């Protein structure tokens, strides 16, 4: 473990509650403590799981802070207290957690960054469905729209991602035995979210994502494989609009860019001031995912996109489907058609909204 | 989309299901290197199952075990393997006769990849395990990715070594359950600092190999689940790229791009063409050369039948859970009211992205 500079981050990644992320994290913490490493629990979520709780015995715990929101007290990690204690390693459960309004920082992963910057190593846990780029896929496979998400770059920056695997059958057995949730909740979970199909799909995502993280960290990842036929590095341009489907478009474009190790840009060409607010929201969403987002003005949208793409040496353009149009407008070209016609040497990808 | 299987398929499944019921359940713990903790996970599960009242027996263990495993072994019943020596080599062979007689509910077999000495009932240990399964004994076993036969070329490219022992991948795919045992490479080097381990870079490559192998096994399980339940094929975790080949398309660009993309995503590459009866000699020749290239690049090739190009492609893409469709287009294709086949394809593509490649020579 490093003593100087930034702390190291290790994420225990699972595919659902109950696979044993926290348990494994605590086991490794105990092993570290035996080696004499100064380690504390900065945040632990017991969920009433006795076997897991037993593993915290003998580990120092930093008390949580209590914040009152809308008349109700909420407990959060006390990052300042952890900083003051300054251990070598801190355990922080549930990386994807959103802090209660009024907290210093919006997200727990931001608290973790503060600890890392102070040179504290952090062990943390999360499930694959909290990964921003998988949000649509998870919704598609399970019907659940996950609200608490972590941008991919935050996970990419972790020094280690360790997969905590368990077969869906074993997980469902655990639920049936009441190990994960109280009986009544467990029975509901078994028929709703924890179905064999859902769990299998999520598990495959967790495996593939861990493999991806391992590959990202292999510095000599096959560079030429991801590049354009003529050897240039791929540059992906996402054309976002105010339409709600732009969120899917942004996530999809960014995901493809990440896998191709491509640069990722986004633009919106605005011809009217209408829908500015939605566009602004998508622009800031894109920036949160570390996409360079630009706002252009212009009456000829396709021309502006094509000019920008050429000037920026873009190799692929990602667009949403054009809106369905009334029949009398169908004589004129759609934006997609116009862009395709004006950018002959650039591949254009039309991203599906992927409704369920 | 509803995908009900035909009656014969159903019958085949019922028979396979019955056979499976008589067979013991196989659970495999897969790791990417020794010391990753597979054996411990296997023994620990055996211990917990025994606590829950199952009849658990150990049928094979490694010669050297760590103290934590030793502790579990002390609490489990063992049917010791038979030690023999043959041509100057020591062998441990599972005592099948004793195990058949004892007939436990669950048998733990460590070191699945071992060979038996010449003249044994089966040449390899995994074949002994299959016999136990066929007699209705459930198995928990542990294996390393470098022992999976179909992965050994890749392993050798990474480590420069090839294990003398192997288990066919098919046996792994037959498993009812497969669990991957993962750990960061640094932790392994920590545990065995004597230089007998590959370096951390090689370990990372082995780790990726094991993760992707497990993901492929799970992908197939998911497909079986979807088929068995006749449910709509959702958006899977695996990227599946379909290149649509037509005589005049820019097939080389599409296929090469498809191959790069599927390689980066560790996904699948498919190529399809819709059968047309009235192709002229030049078009037929073009199509043939596209297919040759597709084969060279490792694409899975499908010939689709149908009167309508768009409908045939759409149906196939849904069945195959395609996530990206690569298609050539011509700006001369604009039909009545400006609607070309490509427009129809884009309009109907609810579940996959459409990447457009201009036909050659139209710039």
General description of the model:
The complex is a heterodimer of chains A (356) and B (363). Chain A has 13 helices and 13 strands. Chain A has 356 residues and is α/β, with parallel strands linked by helices. In chain A, 38% of the residues lie in helices and 19% in strands. The radius of gyration of chain A is 23 Å and the shape is elongated. The two termini of chain A are 45 Å apart. The mean pLDDT of chain A is 90. In chain A, the strands form three sheets. In chain A, strands 3-2-6-7-1-8 form a six-stranded parallel sheet, with helices on both faces. Chain A folds into two domains: 209 residues, Rossmann fold, CATH 3.40.50.300; 117 residues, HUPs (Rossmann fold), CATH 3.40.50.620. Chain B is of the alpha/beta class. Chain B contains 13 helices and 13 strands. In chain B, the strands form three sheets. Chain B has a six-stranded parallel sheet, with helices on both faces. In chain B, strands 11-10-9-12-13 form a five-stranded parallel sheet, sandwiched between helices. A two-stranded antiparallel ribbon of chain B has the order 4-5. In chain B, strand 12, helix 13 and strand 13 form a beta-alpha-beta unit. Chains A and B meet through helix 5, strand 8, helix 9, helix 10 and helix 13 of A and strand 8, helix 9, helix 10, helix 13 and strand 13 of B. Strand 13 of chain A pairs antiparallel with strand 13 of chain B, so a sheet runs across the interface.
Provide a compact summary of the structure:
The complex is a heterodimer of chains A (356) and B (363). Chain A has helices at residues 21-34, 50-54, 79-85, 108-117, 135-142, 152-156, 168-176, 183-191, 196-217, 246-260, 276-288, 301-311, 335-342; strands spanning 9-14, 39-43, 60-61, 65-69, 72-76, 89-92, 121-127, 160-163, 235-239, 263-270, 292-297, 316-320, 347-351.
Number of helices of chain A: 13
Q: Bin the strand percentage of chain A.
A: 15-25%
Distance between the termini of chain B: 39 Å
Q: Note the run of SSEs of chain A as H and E.
A: EHEHEEEHEHEHHEHHHEHEHEHEHE
Q: Report low-confidence residues of chain B grouped into runs of 5 or more.
A: none
């Amino acid at each position: 473990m490093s003593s100087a500079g930034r702390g190291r981050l290790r994420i225990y990644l699972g595919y659902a509650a109950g696979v044993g992320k926290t348990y494994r994290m605590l086991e490794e913490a105990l092993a570290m403590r035996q080696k004499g490493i100064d380690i504390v629990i900065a945040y632990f979520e017991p969920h009433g799981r006795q076997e897991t709780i037993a593993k915290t015995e003998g580990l120092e715990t930093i008390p949580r802070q209590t914040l009152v929101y809308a008349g109700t007290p909420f407990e959060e990690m006390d990052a300042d207290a952890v900083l003051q204690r300054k251990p070598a390693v801190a355990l922080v459960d549930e990386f994807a957690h959103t802090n209660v309004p009024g907290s210093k920082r919006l997200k727990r992963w931001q608290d973790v960054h503060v600890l890392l910057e102070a040179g504290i190593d952090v062990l943390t846990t999360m499930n694959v469905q909290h990964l921003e780029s998988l949000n649509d896929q998870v919704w598609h496979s399970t019907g659940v729209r996950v609200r608490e998400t972590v941008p991919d770059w935050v996970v990419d920056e972790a020094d280690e991602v360790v997969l905590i695997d368990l077969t869906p059958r074993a997980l469902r057995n655990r639920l049936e035995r009441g190990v994960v949730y109280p009986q009544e909740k467990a029975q509901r979970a078994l028929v709703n979210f924890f179905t064999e199909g859902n769990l299998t799909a999520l598990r495959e995502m967790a495996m593939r994502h861990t493999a991806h993280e391992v590959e990202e960290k292999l510095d000599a990842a096959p560079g030429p494989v991801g590049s354009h036929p003529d050897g240039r590095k791929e540059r992906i341009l996402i054309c976002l609009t105010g339409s709600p489907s732009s969120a899917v478009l942004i996530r999809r474009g960014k995901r493809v860019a990440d896998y191709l190790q491509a640069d990722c840009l986004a633009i919106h060409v605005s011809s009217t001031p209408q829908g500015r607010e939605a566009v602004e929201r998508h622009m800031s969403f894109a920036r949160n995912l570390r996409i360079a987002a630009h706002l252009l003005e212009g009456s000829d949208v396709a021309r502006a996109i094509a000019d920008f793409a050429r000037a920026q040496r873009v190799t692929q353009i990602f667009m949403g489907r054009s809106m369905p149009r009334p029949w009398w407008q169908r004589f004129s070209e759609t934006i997609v058609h116009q862009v395709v016609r004006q950018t002959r040497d650039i591949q254009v990808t039309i991203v599906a909204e992927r409704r369920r | 989309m509803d995908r009900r299987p035909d009656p014969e398929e159903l019958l085949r499944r019922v028979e396979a299901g019955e056979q499976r019921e008589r067979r013991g359940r196989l659970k495999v713990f897969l790791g990417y290197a020794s010391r990753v903790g597979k054996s411990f996970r296997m023994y620990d599960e055996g211990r917990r199952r025994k606590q829950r009242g199952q009849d658990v027996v150990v049928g094979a263990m490694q010669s050297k075990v760590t103290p934590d495993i030793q502790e579990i072994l002390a609490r489990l019943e063992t049917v010791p393997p038979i030690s023999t020596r043959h041509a100057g080599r020591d062998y441990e062979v599972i005592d099948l006769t004793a195990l058949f007689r004892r007939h436990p509910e669950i048998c733990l077999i460590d070191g699945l990849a071992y060979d038996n000495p010449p003249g044994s009932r089966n040449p390899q240990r995994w074949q002994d395990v299959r016999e136990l399964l066929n007699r209705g004994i459930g198995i928990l076993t542990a294996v390393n990715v470098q022992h999976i036969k179909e992965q050994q070329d890749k392993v050798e490219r990474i480590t420069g070594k090839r294990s003398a022992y192997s288990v066919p991948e098919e046996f792994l795919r037959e498993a009812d359950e497969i669990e991957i045992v993962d750990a960061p490479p640094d932790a392994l080097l920590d545990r065995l600092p004597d230089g007998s381990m590959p370096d951390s870079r090689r370990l990372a490559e082995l780790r990726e190999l094991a993760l992707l192998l497990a993901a492929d096994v799970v992908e197939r399980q998911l497909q079986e689940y979807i088929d068995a339940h006749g449910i709509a094929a959702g958006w899977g975790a695996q990227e599946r790229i379909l290149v649509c080949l037509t005589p005049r398309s820019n097939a080389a660009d599409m296929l090469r791009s498809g191959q790069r993309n599927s390689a980066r995503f560790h996904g699948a590459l498919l190529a399809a063409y819709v059968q047309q009866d009235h192709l002229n000699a030049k078009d037929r020749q073009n199509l043939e050369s596209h297919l040759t290239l597709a084969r060279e690049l490792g694409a899975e090739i499908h010939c689709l039948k149908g009167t309508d190009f768009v409908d045939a492609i759409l149906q196939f893409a849904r069945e195959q859970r395609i996530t990206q469709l690569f298609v050539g287009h011509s700006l001369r294709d604009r039909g009545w009211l400006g609607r070309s086949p490509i427009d129809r394809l884009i309009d109907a593509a609810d579940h996959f992205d459409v990447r457009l490649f201009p036909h050659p020579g139209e710039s």
